[in-house]
Amino acid sequence: VRNDNDPTTWVIGSYKDDDISKPVELLASGTGDCNEMKTHFAPEKVCYALIRVIDVYENINTVKFVFIYWLGSKVSVMKKAKISVHKGKVNEMFSNFHVDFMISSLNEISNEIVMRKVSQNSGSRSMVTRR
Q1: What is the arithmetic mean of pLDDT over 98-127?
Q2: Is the pTM of this model over 0.85?
Q3: pLDDT at 73 over 60
Q4: Within a domain: residue 51?
């Protein structure tokens, strides 16, 4: 995902055999967009994803990385509590990224939502302008 010469634009990691005591392993990867990536999120899964997007401002393309923490709506309360302690290590594994999302419903994430948040958080948008 981080190599500009590699066509892979996203990766998803999830716990091996959906067992949170096991390591996070590659669940899926692809060359498409966020809408393609989110088809791999299931209600009973906990997933961590990184996607590369292009932010365009004043005709300049800038690569941005987005981290997505998927906590499916059917993940048990006990599992949710147990994985909360994993957040720091998972962030290290996927860092550095420009923006992040914590979602539990597919309608919380789309290409448009991702790009809106990337644009809002882009340093180029906060330049001081002359009057």
Answers
A1: 88
A2: yes
A3: yes
A4: yes
